[in-house]
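Deviation from plan, reported transparently: molybdenum atom complex.
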Amino acid sequence: MFSNLSADRRKEEQRVSKEGRLPPGQSLTLKFPVLHYGPVPHFNAATWDFRVWGEVEQEKEWNWAEFNKLSRTTIEMDIHCVTRWSKFDTVWEGVSVKTLVDQGLIMIKPDVTHVMQHAEYGFTVNLPLEVFLQENFLMATHFNGEPLTTDHGYPLRGVVGNIPSHKEEETPYLWKGAKWLRSLEFMTKDRRGFWEQAGYHNRADVWKEERFG
Ligand SMILES: Nc1nc2c(c(=O)[nH]1)N[C@H]1C(S)=C(S)[C@@H](COP(=O)(O)O)O[C@H]1N2
Ligand SMILES: [Mo]
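Because the crystal trials were delayed, the predicted structure below was used instead.
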């Protein structure tokens, strides 16, 4: 049984590699490893809120019920972890920041260049605005049709990966999506997040193997 699984894994890896979807130094996993620093937070729907703040025309605050009324998007993409595992054809459902901007629900000031995701316990991660607004970045509530598990960020996480048909979009490593996401801070200059301060690469492009800074 174990050897069948590993044969399946290798076959899948050869397939995505042939399709040009396996970034350098990565290998395919059929599992979904859990990686983060610190404890897993408890979710309380009565006190949870989501904030949009910083350099925006109007700050926003949505509670859980309000957040769930926002327009929803489903995307399929390949996710790539800096620790060298990649997972292919993963399906994510949630809220697209680009959609909120297009709908005028988030009004970004003209001089904004970067965005900081803030998560529970003070975890942060930064991205350039242009990457953050791509279709391959989603604020996800669901993975493969099910609500996120607590380990993977329930109730809400940032997730970023590679949509195979979107060759023009930059693909950062998976750490550029914050699990247990609570707010977005729009900024007029760059600031490093938690892992970036710890020595991870600031840009994190998987095709350029930007693992460490
Ligand atoms: N809140 C929070 N989000 C986080 C992290 C973290 O430490 N805290 N680690 C990042 C890292 S390093 C990775 S590789 C991915 C892993 O996501 P997963 O556990 O769903 O595989 O979460 C990212 N998001
Ligand atoms: Mo990571």
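The pocket of molybdenum atom (ligand 2) is lined by residues 35, 81-83, 175 (CB under 6 Å). We consider this an acceptable substitute for the interim report.
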